[in-house]
Amino acid sequence: MLESVLYTAGATANGGRDGRVVSDDGQLDLRVATPKELGGPGAATNPEQLFAAGYAACFHNALMLVARQARQDATGSSVTARVGIGKLADSVGYSLRVDLVVELPGLADDVARELVAKADVVCPYSNATRGNIAVTHEVVGA
Questions:
Q1: pLDDT of residue 142
Q2: What are the E-state strand segments in 3-93?
């Protein structure tokens, strides 16, 4: 449970996967389309890309925070999130999986893995998805 809400973002979708999404403040205004791999036209962003972008940015911010706290240099680091969608086994529903690729050049492997583990505890996306969908962490460049 949240102790308090510090910020609330809002967005409105019209047309589902083949429509438009607009944030409350108008900073995000995108056409969305079902990917070709899911039988759609493609040629526009989709919810999985938006989720991947949000998760990557959020996790990278958490990583930089824990690196600063540990007095480790995370210069040149990056996080790539790959979001997959598929059918649930024995269900009519769908779910997601996320594979995070964390690049931490110049750090020892054990230090990099420790920072990733700490970032996973801090990141709101990780906390929201934990126990709900599969999330993997790959550390490269360590």
A1: 55
A2: 11-14, 19-23, 29-32, 78-87
